[in-house]
TrEMBL record:
Belongs to the TolB family. Gene3D superfamilies: TolB, C-terminal domain (2.120.10.30). It comes from Bacillus velezensis (strain DSM 23117 / BGSC 10A6 / LMG 26770 / FZB42). Pfam families: PD40 (PF07676). This is PD40 domain-containing protein.
Length: 348
């Protein structure tokens, strides 16, 4: 990419800081020993973690599926039924690799290699494709793409192949409905607002973020918001979207998690800073399989600050569960010796 979008410059700093420690799944509190302990009452979660030596681990609840030296920001998907893990990494020349790991035999296979980047992996409902966000070295935009696990080839889904301005900032694949929720924006508009802010020495205004939903090439715009928005997810029934919105004033950031009704296009804040935690600007909110819970990442009050071998530091992240019926939050994953990179609800 020749130039990076402001929101992703901010997120890059957060993501870089996030890859510095290992995670512990808790019930109640951490034992400080780095051993994963499963708490009950929630969906199985797939969690990517990285320790202070930059070893990345992938957890399925309390079980370590795989670990290796960090080579790229972790992106992954799990075929739980067949116990196959898909993930990306880079080689010594910083070229992207898409891997398939058979968790039963421990056989690791390279499915694809190239100069493009891939993140946000989702496995299709029929287990034949991986959907991902594609970045090409010769383009300023990001795309939604599909990788065929049989032919080992990928195809562009959105935007159109000749599009040069419309960029995908985030997407979510809804396996229950076999469709997508997607955020996209104009790179030209974003560059203009960033340049104007730099010239005036002020914080940039948010770029207009467009919400879309639908199946593959038939995505339709729902609405748009002029807010800094990091991510999006959709409920299993497809009726609601959840996303992270945040404000930026200098180095101060404040995030909230909002719920949008797909039919009415109305949205409201459901989670914001509380006495016990503050949502991250990349909180990655996701619905439980039955749609009754929203999982998200936040910084707990008094969170421990950690430092990795490169000298970077960040505070411990915690995964919370927000119950839509009671409007109450509870801790699901936490570790005062480590920081969570990212997570997803395991689909079966």
């Amino acid at each position: 990419m020749k130039k990076k979008r402001w929101i992703w410059m901010l997120l890059a700093a957060v993501l870089a800081a996030a890859v510095i420690a290992a995670v512990l799944l808790i019930k109640g509190k951490s034992d400080g020993g780095g051993k994963a302990v499963v708490s009950g009452g929630h969906d199985k979660l797939l969690v990517s973690i990285t320790d202070k030596d930059l070893m990345t681990k992938y957890y399925e609840d309390g079980r370590v599926l795989y670990e290796e030296k960090l080579s790229a920001y972790p992106a992954f998907a799990l075929d739980d039924a067949h116990q196959v893990l898909y993930f990306v990494g880079n080689n010594d020349q910083n070229e992207m690799r898409l891997y398939k790991l058979d968790l039963k035999t421990k056989k690791k296979t390279v499915l694809y290699k190239g100069t493009a980047s891939a993140d946000s992996l989702f496995l299709s409902k029929d287990l034949t494709h991986i959907y991902f966000r594609l970045g090409k070295a010769d383009e300023d935009i990001f795309r939604l793409a599909s990788f065929d696990l049989k032919t080992k080839r990928y195809e562009n889904l959105y935007p159109a192949a000749d599009e040069k301005d419309d960029s995908v900032s985030s997407f979510f694949y809804n396996r229950s409905q076999n469709d997508f929720a997607l955020l996209h924006y104009s790179v030209k508009e974003d560059y203009q607002k960033t340049d104007e802010a730099n010239e005036k020495g002020i914080d940039p205004e948010p770029t207009n973020i467009r919400f879309a939903a639908g199946a593959g090439e038939h995505l339709q715009d729902l609405t748009n918001l002029e807010q800094f928005i990091s991510d999006v997810a959709v409920s299993p029934d497809g009726k609601n979207l959840v996303f992270t919105s945040y404000t930026q004033k200098g180095t101060e950031q404040k995030a909230s998690i909002r719920l949008m009704n797909v039919k009415t296009k109305k949205d409201e804040t459901i989670i914001s800073n509380g006495k016990d935690f503050a949502p991250l600007i990349d909180a990655q909110p996701q619905f439980s399989k039955d749609g009754s819970i929203i999982y998200f990442m936040a910084e707990a009050k008094g969170a421990k600050r950690l430092k990795d071998e490169t000298g970077r530091n960040a505070k411990v992240r915690t995964i919370y569960a927000y119950h839509l019926d009671t409007k109450k939050c509870e801790k699901v994953w936490e570790n005062d010796n480590g920081i969570i990179n990212s997570f997803s609800v395991i689909q079966s």
